Write the structure tokens for this entry.
Amino acid sequence: MDYTKVIICFLLCMPGAVLLRAQEDTLLRSVVTLQEVIVQQDGRLHNSRERKQGADLQVPTDQLLEKISGVNMIRRGNYAWEPAIRGLNAGQINVTISGMAIFGACTDRMDPASSYIEPNNLKSVAVSYGTNNESYGSTIGGGFNFKLKQPRLNSEKRFSGLAGLGFESNADALQTLAALEYSSKNFAVRGNGIFRKAGNYAAGGGSRIDNSQYAKWNGGLSAVYRFSDHHFIYTDYIQDEGWDIGYPALLMDVAFARAKIASVAYRYQPHSKNLHHWETKLYFNTIDHAMDDTKRPKDQVPVHMDMPGTSRTTGFYSEALWTFDNAHHLTVRLNGYRNRLHAEMTMYPEGAASMFMLTIPDAQRDVAGLDISHKMHIGQNAEIVAGARADYTGSSLYSAEGKQLFSGMHLGNLGRSTLLYNIYLNGAYRMNNHAQLFAGVARAMRSATLQEMYGFYLFNRSDGFDYIGNPGLKNEASCNLSTGARFRKSIVAIEGQVFAYFFQHYIAGMQVPGYSAMTYGARGVKRYGNISSAVLYGAEANIEVKPLSVLTLKSSNTYIHGQDVNSNALPLIAPFKSVNTLSVNWKEYRFTGEYEYAAAQRHISSTFYGELSSPSYTIVNLAAGKSIPIKSTLLDLSISLTNLFDRNYYTHLDILKIPRLGRNLTVHLTLQF
């Protein structure tokens, strides 16, 4: 592959290096805040604020993430979709909850960390599109930080809260939620909960998708105590319980998925001339997950098996923000965590003794990192954010049984220690009151995940191979570039950007001749290895037109292309996608029409990465709502009709090409007081 053409094309699009003006917050970042939305993406110089309605608290987190520009969801069923950023996923991105590291326990990635958070206890989602100080760790593709909602001190109302009810015609899905908050001058506490249940859904045309049901509840409790003018203690606890979860794209379903997430934080906020705030947090989370095939027809289960897994993470972070003469802002964060993964499989062949095997043989990772970010104002129109992060990462097997198992597959030392470094420079320049330019460059690294290092016959449904880990993997690295411009004047706002990731030591599975597969029907065995180089590049364009105060038209368009040094198309890359909406907000009424188009994806590698092509699709969605003030309360009614024409469709990132929901009528009723 000729990288020279890609680099020359990219440089022609880049503004001059001196044309730099940073966003008030960290660049290369998108923030979606529930109830009041703030979008800040790749150095925007403006905030777009929109009052969110009660229905947004009932929409699953998966669907909220899918609306963010550059974010696609990997779907294995109707529950717990896995997020991807610009074609990067899994170990290439970080997922944190209010800065806390958290890792799913399922070897088939049925339980991404995002599945354990609900909008009811979520304040905002910050999306980083590359390495920066909002990533909370070394990363290539950025990440998600789900910031939990905190109770407010000294609120106007001593007691406030909400209650809601929702119903979906497709799958007879039901959700109920409630929240209650108490606020005083020095103490505030908030409790919330939500329950969801859905049956098997119908795809476009009416065909029933078996094993797509789910049930769950999620509850949270948060408190804040001010013991002096500048000293605060925050506590958070979330429990998420899911059961009877079907995955039509996989060989097994889920008996239960359980999470317990707890933290305590101390915050010193002097509001002095220099030190703005200093916060230290301790946290702990546990994930328990069990795959199950007992509800599948016997002809689909050649050999019955159980596959439980656990994840245990303990960690901390301490960060401080200093300001100097209003032109320099310094953020320093020290963080660390220990994560332990255990996964096993027991097979019960008819007429024979059961067989037990560790699929993640008690793997452990210790991480300690330091992040320093410096934001500099240059005059009134320019700003630069420069930063660096260093991580020490130690990986090992902590049990004698695990070491004994994996030593037969890998000769040499099973433990590994690495030093990672990430550096970045982002900035933008305001040309005038209507036009801005922005750019960013970064050198990013990541260590192989524990599954990539120590996984033992993990079946990948996407390509049909069993995977074996490799403790000798090199660190995956990337040079990230991005640049763009925006224009806003009168009724029109336009923003466009291009980006590229140039990988070294790209991690992928490589077929191992002569190895026998463990999973029934698997095509063979692959071991994780390094490919010398790969490239991923793309473009995003957003247009907004507001011809009338009550009328808004928006268009969001994304294109991504990726391939490795051997000209194999990279896997799980979404094709060109365009989402176009027309919104009317008149008095207390709101109406929305949405047209979504995705092109066919034919740039695939069926031989190396095992992907299949995907056809194009178009769908139309409609929604309406009204907010009704009733004394000191607000009653909100929302009705939506998705997939209006009942299209039978799937996206390229839907595993096994399982069709998505057909026509679906949703009604949400929310009372806020």
User: Anything to note?
Assistant: The two ends are 60 Å apart (CA to CA).
